[in-house]
Design brief:
Blueprint (H helix, E strand, L loop, with lengths): L1 H19 L7 H8 L3 H4 L11 E2 L6 E6 L4 E7 L4 E4 L3 H12 L14 E2 L5 E6 L2 E6 L5 E3 L9 E3 L5 E6 L2 E6 L4 E4 L8 E3 L7 H6 L11 E2 L5 E8 L5 E6 L9 E6 L9 E8 L5 E3 L5 E2 L8 E3 L5 E7 L5 E8 L5 E8 L11 E3 L6 E5 L6 E5 L6 E4 L6 E9 L4 E7 L10 E7 L6 E2 L6 E6 L5 E8 L2 E9 L5 E7 L3 H5 L6 E6 L6 E7 L10 E6 L13 H4 L3 H6 L3 E6 L8 H4 L10 H14 L3 E11 L1 H12 L4 E7 L10 H7 L7 H4 L12 E7 L8 H12 L5 E5 L10 H16 L22
Parallel strand pairs: 39-40, 39-41, 41-42, 42-43, 43-44
Antiparallel strand pairs: 1-2, 2-3, 3-4, 5-6, 6-7, 7-8, 9-10, 10-11, 11-12, 13-15, 14-15, 15-18, 16-17, 18-19, 18-20, 21-22, 22-23, 23-24, 25-26, 26-27, 27-28, 29-30, 30-31, 31-32, 33-34, 34-35, 35-36, 37-38, 38-40
């Protein structure tokens, strides 16, 4: 009897340790190891091959910046000669710049990341902390440049003779050679100003004033003879007020008011105007003002003849997208193309190119159930030919070689037995014939084509495949040379595991779904690990990483704490068929059943995943999604961190919600609001929001918190001073998010007062 009792006790102890031994993580050592996987700290452990070519003029030569493990180099490539060499002598340039600036610069870390060659390649121009510099590459002498360069709130013409700026809501021109000024408009006023895009809060906070000063939105013709701009009317539009509770330099809080239309409210409008630069003649574009669906303002693109330009208009709720062409002399305009839908035309999937010589239009549309390219007669608006077709999607129109009449585009889903989200480069003739795959390797391909259409740079990788950057010939895609190769040796030697791709089924069994699984570097298949889902379900994209570099961002540190981390792209996102995409229409809150079922499918295949301990976090629409999934599936998701969440679509930006939730505003807005469902909370919830968020206003989190209080629910909340949208690299918030999951999902006490350190990534004076 005694021996049998001992055996039973030992069996229970063995079962406990084999089932729950994963709980013995979340230690200070785990935190310390996790910090090694933060982006700044990873810079000197791994080199990612991702060449971003800067093509020189209209040639096929280019330079790129190589941010290596130990140093940064600028490389010059001549594809025709198949040569690669330093763009300049970095040691001599660092010495010359140090002497001229009277401060020390290292040749291995020059204080700029971009520059412009002179036409003869004998000098370069760049900026250091807002100061313009030019360095002679023969004598290696550097000097500052003054005078003709525009200021931060000015726009310069292509010939550099004119500078446009805004003063007291009106538009002015300054003639640079003489310094004379011409006032182009006289009736601008607050809320009805010229060349002023709808602004967010950030520039106001930076300037410390509610009267915004900013760069004018003017679009110059290539010959600098004309410009097109607009008269923006925000007088009837709704506004939001943000309170900056801890403004730098003063004790009293500051209030800032910004234009922010909510679903169903009046939108700002913009009336396009053309100005003759030399005479000041004003020509109003003939037609009604444009309802502004988005922050910013309308965009205009001039044709090379400088006589006309094009722009795109999105109808309310983006029920249609219309491409207009305007005669710059008369202001007359005509419709070139229009795409309509009884639901929505996704602006992210709709792109076009007007062929200059013929007026034909290459147009993308989801009309046949998949996003494809069509060729239209631009004069009559009649369809000439469908250029691509089949159960796959065109993702990007990269270029059109008008001389050879060939289109280059990125597409996904055409190659059999491969991830349907991976993009490849294809070309097709403008008669729809000779479709050619130019990048056959099983990887995700990011492409940049030379201006002369002879070469392209191909960055290829997968989350489980460190990739390379290859220079290829446009003729058949043949390799010219490997430019760079990812070096992940140190990372792999540390025990780090590639994220594991996973394929499952949607809840209704109709669609294949795809996800990724991250494990800690000290992973033990004999343990049980709690699961954390990183979620974002916005219908404007898909979000599971498809490249090696993207798979390294943000989630490996979370896994190192002792978790299995997963991401899933469910129905309602892009990159697949229109039917797959439309699942979220009027149904932004209904997308999470696929996520629950995918995690269950993962756990059924991988017993190390503890399906009884699942957490979730996300930002923005992911903040809404994380909280919403926790409310709708309270017995599945036990812990949630919701960051900058748009918890109630009725209080969020008009354009995004009218486009994807639906327009006109229906009862589903209220039904799918987290405010409405607050009473269903069971698990642990941490709400995080910034006081000066100019994307999703903090009022959304406040209303959600109010509903939780009224429902007598326990939750945690952090309202963060001086924080815009998302964590924004705030390491304190990263640590608090880690702590929340370690405490409530791992079930251990986080290390007290742990301070995360991440090496800053140089931003060269730009805001992070």
């Amino acid at each position: 009897m005694k021996s049998s009792r001992i055996a039973r006790v030992l069996a229970v102890v063995f079962l406990f340790f084999t089932t729950y031994s994963g709980r013995a993580q979340g230690t200070r050592d785990d935190y310390q190891r996790a910090t090694q996987f933060l982006p700044g700290n990873m810079r000197h452990r791994i080199y990612i091959a991702e060449v971003s070519p800067h093509w020189i003029a209209k040639t096929n030569r280019f330079w790129y910046r190589k941010a290596g493990i130990k140093e940064t180099e600028f490389i010059l490539v001549d594809p025709a000669q198949n040569t690669v060499k330093p763009a300049f002598d970095q040691a001599r340039l660092a010495s010359a710049l140090s002497e001229a600036a009277k401060r020390e610069f290292k040749s291995t870390e020059l204080p700029f990341d971009t520059f412009d060659f002179s036409d003869d390649l004998k000098s370069i121009h760049f900026q250091v902390e807002g100061t313009d510099w030019r360095c002679d590459l023969e004598a290696y002498k550097c000097k500052t440049e003054h005078g003709a360069e525009p200021g931060p709130f000015e726009s310069m013409s292509p010939d550099k003779n004119w500078i446009a700026y805004i003063s007291d809501y009106n538009l002015y021109l300054r003639y640079v050679p003489l310094g004379t000024v011409v006032q182009l408009t006289h009736d601008g006023e607050r809320g009805w100003s010229y060349a002023t895009p709808i602004s967010g809060l950030r520039p106001m906070v930076a300037q410390g004033t509610d009267d915004l000063k900013q760069r004018p939105a003017v679009f110059w013709s290539e010959d600098s003879s004309k410009l097109v701009t607009y008269h923006m009317d925000t007088r009837g539009a709704g506004r939001f007020t943000n309170v900056q509770f801890v403004p730098p330099g003063q004790l009293r809080p500051k209030a800032f008011s910004v234009v922010y239309s909510l679903p169903g409210e009046i939108l700002p409008t913009a009336a396009p105007i053309i100005f003759d630069v030399h005479t000041g003649k004003r020509t109003d574009v003939k037609g009604p003002p444009i309802e502004m669906q988005f922050q910013g303002g309308p965009g205009f693109e001039w044709f090379p003849d400088n006589k006309s330009f094009q722009y795109q208009v999105d109808a309310r709720g983006v029920k249609s997208i219309t491409l207009w062409v305007v005669d710059a002399e008369t202001g007359d305009q005509k419709v070139v193309m229009s795409e309509k839908s009884d639901r929505y035309v996704d602006p992210g999937e709709t792109f076009s190119h007007i062929i200059k010589d013929t007026g034909e239009v290459v147009w993308a549309s989801e009309r046949d159930g998949w996003n494809h390219l069509y060729l239209y007669d631009g004069k009559t608006g009649t369809l000439k030919v469908q250029l691509t077709q089949g159960p796959w999607v065109v993702r990007q129109l990269l270029d059109v070689d008008e001389k050879s009449r060939r289109v280059y585009f990125a597409a996904a889903g055409r190659e059999k037995n491969e991830d349907p989200y991976q993009t490849y480069l294809y070309s097709v003739d403008l008669d729809g014939k000779n479709l050619t795959l130019l990048t056959p390797e099983n990887a995700n391909h990011s492409i940049s084509i030379s201006p002369d259409h002879l070469y392209f740079v191909d960055n290829a990788s997968r989350p489980d495949l460190p990739g390379n950057s290859v220079l290829r010939s446009i003729k058949g895609g043949s390799q010219v040379r490997v430019l760079e190769q990812t070096d992940a040796a140190e990372l792999l030697n540390s025990g780090w595991k590639f994220p594991q791709p996973f394929k499952g089924k949607s809840t209704d069994g109709t669609f294949d779904l795809y996800g990724l699984i991250w494990k800690p570097s000290n992973f033990d298949p004999g343990k049980k690990y709690p699961v954390i889902e990183s979620v974002y379900t916005g219908p404007q994209g898909f979000f599971v990483p498809k490249t090696f570099s993207a798979a390294l961002r943000g989630l490996p540190p979370v896994a190192e704490l002792g978790f299995i981390v997963v991401m899933v792209d469910g129905r309602g996102t892009t990159g697949r068929s229109r039917a797959f995409h439309e699942f979220s229409y009027h149904n932004l809150g209904g997308s999470f059943e696929d996520h629950v079922n995918m995690i269950k499918q993962m756990a059924a295949q991988f017993p190390y995943m503890d399906i009884d301990r699942v957490g979730i976090f996300g930002t923005s629409a992911g903040g809404y999604g994380a909280a919403h999934a926790t409310l709708v599936f309270p017995d599945f998701y036990k812990v949630c961190v919701s960051i900058s969440g748009d918890h109630d679509a009725r209080l969020d930006k008009a354009w995004w919600n009218e486009l994807y939730q639906g327009y006109p505003v229906g009862k589903d807005y209220e039904e799918q609001s987290n405010v409405t469902l607050a009473g269903q909370l069971k698990g642990h919830l941490l709400l995080v929001h910034g006081d000066i968020d100019d994307n999703v206003h903090v009022v959304e989190t406040m209303r959600f918190a109010d509903a939780l209080i009224k429902a007598n629910k326990d939750f945690d909340m952090l309202i963060v001073p001086n924080m815009y949208h998302g964590e924004g690299g705030n390491l304190y918030l990263v640590r608090r998010r880690w702590d929340y999951f370690v405490q409530h999902l791992l079930g251990v006490t986080p290390p007290a007062g742990f301070e995360i350190h991440d090496e800053p990534i140089p931003t060269f004076g730009r805001p992070q």
